[in-house]
Write a structure and sequence with these properties.
Helix content: 55-70%
Order of helices and strands: HEHHEEHHEHHEEHH
Number of strands: 6
Distance between the termini: 79 Å
Strand order of the largest sheet: 2-3-5-6
Number of helices: 9
Structural class: alpha+beta
Shape: elongated
Number of domains: 1
Strand content: 5-15%
Radius of gyration: 42 Å
CATH superfamily: Outer membrane efflux proteins (OEP)
Length: about 450
């Protein structure tokens, strides 16, 4: 029995020591630790850009300003009410009578009297209510279409910014993959250099093999350093788009993909949903409405006006009442305004033609871009598949040549050549993947489906 207690006692003290040495709070509780990086997913990157990107926020202000134009048009039918108050004192200037003799130094204004009388105050209310003003209709339509144009422009700016966020995000992931590949290449070049040195000591290699192995080793080391610097640049660009200034890490999102549709469907979708094309369409309607506004300036306008006036002193109205009302309808019809109206109409018509030509050319450019990106996506998809086979073949070939070199069948030049081919295949595969993802995202942006995928973080639906 005593032997059993002797065995349990050390175990008890060991458990007690571990319990007392355990920290009171877990290390993850201190979120202010500068060593802890923020993990930013692609969806979180979209959300941060939508909330903090300065370009999107500035465009939102432009859209807000355009919405105020509708109220300017509506206010043309709102009443205009004014209040006027005047407080007056009338006086009589009575100069003194000059003496018979006065020296030249005497001032004639000395003793001048100012007598105030008839104190009076006056106030009035005036009401002006438009009854007929047909120019309000084209003015309101122009303001509404201008707001819709800015809304489409805001959607376009948001989609472009979020597209740049996605491109930069995948660039960061690509640079991280390049670093992993270059690190592996660096380790392979280092292992080959050590093997060549061992063979040189054993008399199975020559000094030229060492020089070639060193050249490959330093080249791999330089590629690794260059990849790390490129990653820092890509992360800085992504942080700028997201509007943040702290360090972060990224995670691999699902690969972007395109729905299987015909080219004709993609072109029709772009005509229907592209924000830039929609903004130009609304700009064309705005210019046409402005032309109608200036053409309606010679249509008669009818206003109702009423006023109430009251004076405190009836001295100046000896036979009337101290207060009175006026009311009536007024018709206004300009007969000739010089060249102002003609110039304004011609300018509005020219702006309408400009918007029309821009929209027609934008449709042509958009169609050409959609066709180009559609076939570019197909070509890049095939290129990625081909480069995957090349990378797999280059990896197997390098492993085989390395084993042959260890067995003395292959030379150091064969190993270095196989390693260079493997590095080239890895880089080409990663580059093709990045361009493939960019092409998919760009085609989504052109067809207007990119922002539909981001309804939860889009600025304007």
């Amino acid at each position: 029995m005593k032997k059993a207690n002797f065995r349990v006692a050390p175990l008890f003290f060991l458990i007690l020591f571990v319990f007392l040495s355990k920290p009171a709070f877990p290390a993850t509780a201190f979120s202010s630790n500068p060593q802890v990086k923020h993990i930013v997913t692609l969806k979180e990157a979209y959300r941060l850009a939508a909330l903090k990107n300065g370009t999107i926020k500035a465009t939102k202000e432009i859209y807000y300003q355009s919405t105020l134009l509708k109220w300017s048009a509506i206010s043309m039918y709102l009443p205009d009410i004014n209040f006027r108050y005047a407080d007056q004192r009338f006086h009589a200037n009575i100069p003194p009578t000059p003496p018979a003799y006065q020296s030249p130094s005497t001032n004639y204004l000395e003793g001048q009297l100012f007598t105030f009388f008839y104190p009076n105050y006056e106030y009035s209310f005036t009401l002006n209510q438009p009854l007929l003003d047909l120019s309000v209709i084209p003015a309101y339509n122009a303001a509404r279409n201008s707001a819709l144009s800015e809304k489409s422009n805001l959607n376009g700016v948001s989609a472009d910014t979020l597209y740049n966020v996605a491109v930069s995000y995948y660039m960061v992931l690509n640079d991280e993959s390049l670093i992993k590949a270059d690190k592996k290449t660096y380790e392979e070049a280092k292992a080959h250099l050590e093997l060549t040195r061992a063979k040189l000591r054993a008399g199975l290699a020559i000094i030229t093999d060492i020089l070639q192995a060193k050249s490959q080793y330093y080249s791999a080391k330089q590629g690794l350093i260059s990849g790390k610097n490129s990653l820092k640049t890509s992360k800085a660009r992504l942080a700028s788009l997201m509007g943040i200034d702290y360090d972060f890490s990224v995670v691999s999102p699902p690969e972007p993909f395109l729905a299987k549709k015909s080219l004709k469907n993609y072109i029709a979708e772009a005509y229907r949903n592209n924000p830039g094309l929609k903004a130009l369409n609304y700009s064309l309607e705005t210019a046409r409405n402005e032309t109608g506004y200036y053409e309606s300036q010679y249509i008669p306008k009818i206003n109702f006006q009423a006023s109430f006036n009251e004076m405190s002193n009836t001295h100046f109205i000896p036979a009337g009442s101290p207060n009175y009302w006026t009311a009536g309808a007024y018709l206004t019809m300009p007969l000739f305004q010089g060249g102002t109206r003609i110039i304004s109409i011609e300018k509005a018509r020219s702006e309408s033609n400009e918007a029309l030509y821009n929209m027609v050319q934008s449709r042509r450019d958009l169609r050409a871009q959609v066709i180009s990106d559609f076939y570019n996506v197909k070509n890049l998809r095939e290129e990625v598949v081909t480069l995957k086979y090349e990378e797999s073949f280059a990896s197997k070939n390098y492993s085989l040549v390395e084993e042959e070199y260890k067995a003395g069948v292959a030379t150091s030049v064969d190993v270095i050549t196989a390693l260079a081919n493997l590095v080239r295949a890895r880089h080409m595969l990663l580059s093709a993947k990045r361009r493939y993802y960019d092409a998919i995202l760009n085609l989504k942006r052109l067809t207007g489906t990119f922002q539909n995928r981001l309804i939860s973080v889009s600025v304007v639906n």
